[in-house]
Structure formats: structure tokens, C-alpha cells
């Protein structure tokens, strides 16, 4: 799985254990997810290029830096929203688009119902956020939407990934790097990740 980067960090391991725990309530789940997404954002963006410039300190002018390319954050609705704030903490200058997909529980295939993106996708680095990379159908469909809108550079970020989903995206979009906090064992017969953490959207928003 050469396109997959598993972010190995002790703080992620700790917070992931909190998120997996079925006794973790919605508030703690949300705050922990924001924290873990901040750690992931630091790792996902470690190789961004910067543009040199100058900045005036209270004492003198010195060398400074700004990001050399625009960043667009695109959460897959609705669970992807839980990762956005942690990434914006590190990338306050980023623009945010949205893509809405839901999974047909019978066919397990994605169905789109909403998409809206900034105009500068072609020249931007797009970070596509979806906590659960399960079958890979929704992720692959979202990447296709982005490419159809002009996106050239895309990184897919998930909290958990299943081997089936990683293989799906690798086959459909071999040019896209995937980042995840953990590669779990497999999917069950209903397409849920094992051992997983349940339905991320339900646990973020307190729905069933």
C-alpha cells in the first residue's frame, strides 16, 4: 500500500483510544477528534513549500515566510466536518469546500447530494477529509468530483482506514496520497471498519 502513510505518533495513539471507547460521550468525542486532527494536520502538511519574504519585528526587519501555495480543505459531509477545525487551527488561511455523499446501506455505493468548491482548485493543494475510509467508494467518488472541478493535487486524510478502502482508492486514483491515523483489520458484512469506532458522524453529532 505504497500510497498510504500511517501517522505514528504517541498523542494520536492516546486520543484514538479515547475515540474507540464506546463510553466516550459526544462532547468528549468532538473535542478529542479536534485535537487528534490538529496533530494529523501537522504531519500531513510537513512538506509544504514556503515563499520567503520579510517581516518587521518591534526592533528590525528580518526574513519571514508564507505558504507558497493555496490550501483548500474539503470535508466529506457530514462526518468530515469533525476534522475541519483541527486543520484550520494549523491552516487559518485555507479555504473550505464541501462535498456531500451518503452510502446506500444496501449497495454500499456512494450517492452524491451536494458539492461546492472554491474557484482556485486547479492551483491549490486540496486536503480531502473523511474520518472513515471503509469501502473506499465515497472517498473515490469525492476525489473524482474534485478532479472534475479541476483539482490537480489532492491528499486524502482519514482517521481510520480499512485495507479494502485503501486498495479501492489506490486503484481508482494512484496519484493521490492517503494519510491515516491507523490501518484497521477489515470490514464487516455491513461495511463497517473493524475494530473501528462505530459511526463517526453519529458519535460527533449525537445522532443514531
Structural class: alpha/beta
N/C terminus separation: 33 Å
Task: Give the overall pLDDT as a whole number.
Answer: 92
* CATH topology (fold) name: Rossmann fold
- Following the backbone from N to C, one meets helices and strands in this order, namely EHHEEEHEEEEEHEHEEEH
- Poorly predicted ranges (pLDDT <50, ≥5 residues)? none
CATH architecture: 3-Layer(aba) Sandwich
Look at the structure and give the CATH class: Alpha Beta
Secondary structure tally, helices: 6
Structure description:
The chain has one domain (4-47, 69-205): Rossmann fold, CATH 3.40.50.2020. The longest helix is centred in the N-terminal third of the chain and has 19 residues, at 26-44. Strand 12 and strand 13 (193-194) form a beta hairpin. The chain is of the alpha/beta class and 208 residues long. The model has no long low-confidence stretch (mean pLDDT 92). It is globular, with a radius of gyration of 17 Å. It contains six helices and 13 strands.
Amino acid at each position: 500500500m505504497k500510497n498510504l502513510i500511517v501517522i505514528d505518533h504517541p498523542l494520536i495513539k492516546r486520543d484514538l483510544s479515547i475515540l474507540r471507547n464506546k463510553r466516550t460521550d459526544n462532547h468528549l468525542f468532538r473535542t478529542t477528534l479536534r485535537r487528534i486532527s490538529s496533530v494529523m494536520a501537522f504531519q500531513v502538511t510537513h512538506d509544504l513549500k514556503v515563499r520567503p519574504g520579510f517581516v518587521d519585528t518591534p526592533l528590525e526587519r528580518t526574513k519571514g515566510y508564507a505558504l507558497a501555495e493555496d490550501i483548500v480543505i474539503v470535508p466529506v459531509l457530514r462526518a468530515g466536518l469533525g476534522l475541519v477545525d483541527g486543520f484550520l487551527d494549523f491552516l487559518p488561511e485555507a479555504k473550505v469546500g464541501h462535498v456531500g455523499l451518503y452510502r446506500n446501506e444496501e449497495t454500499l455505493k456512494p450517492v452524491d447530494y451536494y458539492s461546492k468548491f472554491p474557484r482556485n482548485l486547479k492551483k491549490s493543494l486540496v486536503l480531502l477529509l473523511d474520518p472513515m475510509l471503509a469501502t473506499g467508494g465515497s472517498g473515490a467518488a469525492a476525489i473524482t468530483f474534485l478532479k472534475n472541478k479541476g483539482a490537480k493535487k489532492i491528499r486524502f486524510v482519514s482517521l481510520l482506514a480499512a485495507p479494502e478502502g485503501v486498495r479501492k482508492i489506490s486503484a481508482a486514483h494512484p496519484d493521490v496520497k492517503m494519510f491515516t491515523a491507523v490501518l484497521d483489520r477489515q470490514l464487516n458484512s455491513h461495511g463497517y471498519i473493524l475494530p473501528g469506532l462505530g459511526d463517526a458522524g453519529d458519535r460527533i453529532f449525537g445522532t443514531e
